[in-house]
Amino acid sequence: MNSQETDIISQFIPTIISLIFTGLISVVIGIYLEKFKNRLSTIKFSIFNQPIATSSQDNYWGDIKVSHNGRDIKHISVLTFKIENTSNKDLENLKVDLSVDTNSQILGQSGFYNETNTAILLENDHFNYYKNVLERNVQNNQEANLNPNHIIPVQLKSEVDWVMKNKKFHLPVFNRRSEATFNLLVENFNGQVPIGYINIVHKSLRLELKEDSDTELGKTIIYMLIFGLIIYIISYVLLFKEYNDATIPLILTLILGLMYSILGLGVHRFIQFIRKQLK
Fold first, then answer.
1. Closest by alpha carbon to 106, among 47, 45, 160, 53?
2. What is the pLDDT of residues 143-164, one digit of tens each?
3. What CA–CA distance (Å, rounded) separates 17 from 11?
4. Quick check: pTM over 0.70?
């Protein structure tokens, strides 16, 4: 191989390497773009229970009776479910399934979008099925009143039990960063606090429990301190290598840096103490 051929090859080698490198980068970017496009959407939820009243018999307070539409019950609560679309996608035709434990039943329900206060209705098929079951149950009760030997069908019992423990809401659209709230009026047969469940079955969707603000703030502070400490130590080592003749000032700076949170807490507590004494 002569020198001219060698020069030609040496001229093409950087171009070939550049093309190969560019191709690999394009493949990697394409893979990540595809993953970004098909990534899961996330909905965060939280459940709150607000007891309204509980029937009881007490020698001190006396007898307390709770009734709903003229029917005596042992305990009634409002279960509140809140969901938030934390993803960057607008979701369509979302079906939210809410249910309660086996010792409870749902007496009423409501749903709305938090931003507009627009009502969210029950899913159409679920609503029609609910009406059909209740109508058949009314007819069955009328037959039982006329005929003492009438036996309630097992299938109907099962259907009534299911529709009284489950509600399906339909959201035509659930925009990104928006929130929705659902309230269930729940009776518990044992006089205890009812348990609520939520489920959303939707393509490329993940349902996560939302942490309360205090827990989330605590984690943020912990991570902030850890990463800040790592950056501080690395900076200290680099400064120590560059200015090794300033050992004592750097060591004092390191000690003050490690104790800054303790000193800040002490000053904060001292200010609180002074303000309390001056009140």
1. 160
2. 888 888 878 888 999 999 999 9
3. 11
4. no
